[in-house]
Amino acid sequence: MIRINTALFSGALALLFGVAANLAVAAQGENFVDEASAKGLAEIETAKLALEKGTAEDVKAFAQKMIDDHTMANQKLAEIAGQNEDLQLSDEATLMDKAKAMILKLRDGESFDQAYANNQVVAHEQTIELFRNYAEQGDNADLKAFAQSTLPKLEQHLQEAKQLAATHGSKR
């Protein structure tokens, strides 16, 4: 009787761990889609602010590029998510990204340009880390390919943001 109970308990435990592992794998893709799309939305929101409040032409040109590139990336992500019923895009930027956008709203002129450039360096470093981790460890082949193919563009954005930060008096 003890052997039967032990066998049943072991079987149930194995089944529970299997279900938990499957949920964790599904959650990994869901988390990536949610975070990546939220970061894309945050990039678009702050870039719109830069077009409105920025003073330097290079800042405005970079901002327009962020709107174009991150809109296109979010559209590709939406296509992939649309093919997987368990994946949903975020419909808003994350709380931290919203806070950064609020800080930018309080700035004007050269102060805004500097804050935006610094914000873009940090934002792209975080986004690159997210995409690189998923490209290396992700579970969904389509999302993994998306992360891998998007990384070079994100790395280019980071280099451009660092150049902007250097030009506009980065404190970093």
Could you outline the blueprint of secondary structure elements for this entry?
Elements: H1 2-53, H2 57-82, H3 95-105, H4 109-137, H5 141-167
Describe this structure in words.
The structure is a single chain. This protein is elongated. Helix 2 runs antiparallel to helix 5 (141-167). 84% of the residues lie in helices and 0% in strands. The chain has 172 residues and is mainly alpha-helical. Mean pLDDT is 78; it is low at 3-27.
Which keywords apply here?
mainly alpha; 172 residues; disordered N terminus; 5 helices; single chain
Helix residue percentage: over 70%
Q: What value does the average pLDDT take?
A: 78
What percent strand? under 5%
Q: Main sheet, how many strands, which sense, barrel?
A: none
Helix count from the secondary structure assignment: 5
Alpha carbon gyration radius: 21 Å
Number of strands: 0
Question: Helix and strand string, N-terminal first?
Answer: HHHHH
Low-confidence stretches: 3-27
In short:
This protein has 172 residues and is an all-alpha fold.
